[in-house]
Amino acid sequence: MKIVWQMPDGSIRITTPCAVRIDGEAESDYLDRVAARTQSALPDLSGAVRLQDMTDAEHSSLGRQNRAEWGKDQVRTPAALTAIIARGRKP
Amino acid sequence: MANLAVFNSAAFLTASQLAVAGGATIEVRREDTSALASIFSNEAGTAAITNPSAFADSSGRFSFYAAGIARGYSVLVTSGAESFTLRNVAIGTLAQLDAGNLGAISGTSVSVTGDVSGGSVSGNFVASQSAQETGTNTSLIVTPGRQKFHPTAAKAWVQYDSAAGLTSSYNVTSVTDNSAGNLSPVWATDFSSAAYCVVANHEAASSATAATTWTTQVLSRAAGGCNIATIRMSDFAQIDVTYVSVVAFGDQA
């Protein structure tokens, strides 16, 4: 899974978790823990809004070249992000 | 067999008046299993004594040699209708040491010529985090959980690709993809301050021209993470490369 952040300028940042998992920890709890730790450790993310998480497959299908588009779209809601992901899947 | 320790005693009767119990029968059992013990008439342990048997002499005196065991032995002495059991009789070569010899064991210096084995070590044997961080002690045991605190040990490392896909890592919580050629690893355990060393490099296919030559730069550094950029030499734009490797050394909180 990828954690998706929207920056105040509308651009998107993607966090890949790699923390050691705690026994019995649910995936959502794991992502919440990594997100909280990441946001507290990176000053740049202090004003970022966490959007809905993205699967690795969704992230791969978007492609690295769509980063600028993510920023231009000024994503504000999880639904809008979903729409962007859907566009990213198009050939 | 190593030399055995001896047990000496004397059998006597108390029914009417104190009297020698010549030829008394002696039975020796292990306290831990209640099984009949192996006892010997000589220190080398080569001359076995039948157990039980009447091996007290005519004056009631008897002795035997046996190996030291936990909880010791029970010694049953029988003469006629009288019997008495000595419980938890301690027999072992350690009992033949003097107090001065024991000082070598309970004191500050023990010399062992063979292997030392056991479940674990603890207490002052084990190097603490601060001892590891000081890094000068040469008489403590370093354990796997504290090896990392030594100044020469890498506190964190990670290799990731241009989309923050991770190859492998240690002490890293996440890698955030900020923009092309710009990513931020976050440490799982913070450094004690931002005063630590970050070493970063990248892997790319070609470096034949300035347009295909990059440099890796640490843009910023905080106790909890850092920001790394890969920069194209021809125009100084931040550019994705195949892999970036980051290693960090320093003092952890």
Top keywords for this entry?
heterodimer, A: 91 residues, alpha+beta, 3-stranded antiparallel sheet, 4 helices, globular, B: 253 residues, mainly beta, 3 domains, 4-stranded antiparallel sheet, 2 helices, 15 strands, rod-shaped
Structure description:
- The complex is a heterodimer of chains A (91) and B (253).
- Helices cover 44% and strands 13% of the residues of chain A.
- In chain A, strands 2-1-3 form a 3-stranded antiparallel sheet.
- Chain A has one domain (3-89).
- The two termini of chain A are 23 Å apart.
- Chain A has helices spanning 27-41, 56-62, 67-72, 78-89; strands at 3-6, 12-17, 49-50.
- Chain A is built from 4 helices and 3 strands; from the N terminus they run E-E-H-E-H-H-H.
- Chain B has 253 residues and is mainly beta.
- Chain B folds into 3 domains: 5-96; 119-150, no CATH class; 156-249.
- Chain B contains 2 helices and 15 strands.
- A 4-stranded antiparallel sheet of chain B has the order 9-8-15-12, with no helix packed on it. In chain B, strands 10-11-14-13 form a 4-stranded antiparallel sheet, with no helix packed on it. In chain B, strands 4-6-7 form a 3-stranded antiparallel sheet, with no helix packed on it.
- In chain B, strand 8 (156-161) and strand 9 (166-170) form a beta hairpin.
- The two termini of chain B are 55 Å apart.
- The model of chain B has no long low-confidence stretch (mean pLDDT 89).
- The interface between A and B is medium-sized, with 24 and 28 residues.
- Strand 2 of chain A pairs antiparallel with strand 10 of chain B.
Q: Which helices and strands occur, and which strands form pairs?
A:
The complex is a heterodimer of chains A (91) and B (253).
Chain A (H helix, E strand, L loop, with lengths): L2 E4 L5 E6 L9 H15 L7 E2 L5 H7 L4 H6 L5 H12 L2
Helix pairs in contact in A: 2-4
Chain B lengths: L4 E6 L1 E2 L5 E2 L4 E6 L30 E6 L6 E7 L2 E8 L9 H8 L22 H6 L21 E6 L4 E5 L1 E8 L2 E6 L9 E7 L10 E9 L2 E8 L10 E7 L4
Antiparallel strand pairs in B: 1-5, 2-3, 4-6, 6-7, 8-9, 8-15, 10-11, 11-14, 12-15, 13-14
